[in-house]
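Q: What structure does this chain adopt?
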Amino acid sequence: MSTECRTDNQKLFGVIIILFAVVLCRRNDVENIFENVDLLDLAGSFNNRRNKSTFLHRLPNSCSGFFSLRYKYMKNRDWFPSTRAEQNVMFANFNAKIDDYKNVFSLTEPLLATLHTICETFLEVYQKVEQNRAAGANLTSWQDKIFIGTPQGDPVPQAPKFAAINVPAGAFIGIFAEFREIVGFIKSNLSYTENIGLDLMIVAPETEQSNFNDASPNLKLSLKNDVSVEIAFKKSDFDAIEIQYRKASTENWLPADKATTSPTTHTPQLTVAGQAEKFEYRAIYLQKNQRVGTWSPIYSVTVG
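A:
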């Protein structure tokens, strides 16, 4: 058998093993294949370890048809904290505890290092930016003291100090998306449990998992082209939201939109064209085209 023929057979055998490993979703098998079989010419994008790692992180989504039923039907809640302060708590907690689950999830050293890099990058950037934001607020007051402060002739006070930001070695951009992908990989592991998710703070808080009857959407309104209202929202676990509007100081609500993706845009009709007018908006969740939960707070915006 020629060398070329043997090489082709090896590649074919490698592809079969990879497909078999993907079906079983055994990450270690797939990684061993990447280490021992030269198949990179079959997928030109996998030209470095980081791309290999990214492929492995995405395995659960790419083979969802063969996945464990528990993962396939896992409730798709948005567990990622919505505020920077909450994200700070989550990343600090995750960074401190993830090593305890290394063997539970068979996490490799490179993947574990990536997780720590993500967490430490966020903590360094967020905390130093907050410090510098506070220093920046004090800077104006310091300037005013120098220009118009009293008593005249007093020494200049010490200027606010800004903290240097030193990201960890290997830091990269887009860490939120990367973190979500790796957490998805962790949650796909058969050893993953809800209690582990709670310990790592990678599940939605109980308040977001409560009875549908208590659910209420939050809206963010912004003016677009002076005549339209852009409405941003989180759909959570529901199919859509129904949005209503009315002119301020009136009682009757009118349909604005039934939206499944955020943001959506609505153009209310002005009483007098070109004259600014205030409008109010509210929304409620929809599940199978039926209203669920309670109406949101009323949000107002001036159009025109």
